[in-house]
Amino acid sequence: MTTLQIRPRAVSWNRIGPYRCAVVVIIAVSAISLGCNAGKSKVASTTLGGLPSNQIKAANDEKMSANETAPTLAEVQTALSRIYQDTLTIDVGESEPVLWGDFNGDGSPDLAAVVRPRAKEALPKLNGEYANWIVEDPRTIVLPDPSKAVQRLPPPSAAPPIKVNDILLAVLHGYGPSGWHHPYARQTFLLCNAVGENIRSQPLREVWSAAGKNAQSQRQGNVISEKLSGHEGFLYWSNGKYVWHQ
Predict the structure, then answer these.
(1) Where are the beta strands (DSSP E) in the chain?
(2) Most exposed: 3, 14, 89, 218, by fewest CB within 10 Å?
(3) Same domain, 103 and 217
(4) For 90-105, what is each residue's pLDDT tens digit?
(5) Which are the contacts of 232, defined by CB distance < 8 A and separation ≥ 6?
(6) In 3-state terms, what secondary structure has residue 220?
(7) Cβ–Cβ contacts within 10 Å for residue 228, how many?
(8) What is the residue-averaged pLDDT of the chain?
(9) pTM score, whole prediction
């Protein structure tokens, strides 16, 4: 009697091959993904150092103050000519015609300069309707009362006309770490009736502390202190405008 032998069917590697390759690819992609995530975590830890955001901001402000040196009159005039299209010149008759600091509290170095119109021919451009700067008088700005939930503010004052003999304060906000030096730094204000005696840049918290108020509740940055019309006070950034406080 003939014995029938049944052998197991051999598995073809040609059929397994594609599945095996797919498994290998999945393992490789998973390993790469894990490595990338670990790298990101390491970079984030190195960059932030585990500090809260407010401490990082304070560290950046201190670094800015340490690195920002007194600009030359030539550097300032170049920046003014770039922004104001050769309509202004530095008033070198002032004892402190140039100030610097972080006036709007964004961590980028800003510039303030005591200036005057270059000539009578510059007035149409300085007072132009489509000028790339904001002309205002800080002493006429009315801010909302924080103690009132509902209130009606007066309409904003019209921009005061600039005259040929006016002494003005030009404030140029910085852009990024380069500050006011950067070609993209173009947000600027031309302040009328804002130049007095002993004009200087001071840390906002220092001014608040000297007034006996809670300095730590204030933002980082600087104000422009001076004696204006016989009153000691300072110009500060608030609600997108420069306001006089005395």
Answers:
(1) 88-90, 98-101, 110-117, 134-136, 168-172, 188-191, 197-203, 222-228, 231-238, 241-245
(2) 3
(3) yes
(4) 999 888 899 999 999 9
(5) 225, 226, 246
(6) coil
(7) 22
(8) 77
(9) 0.69
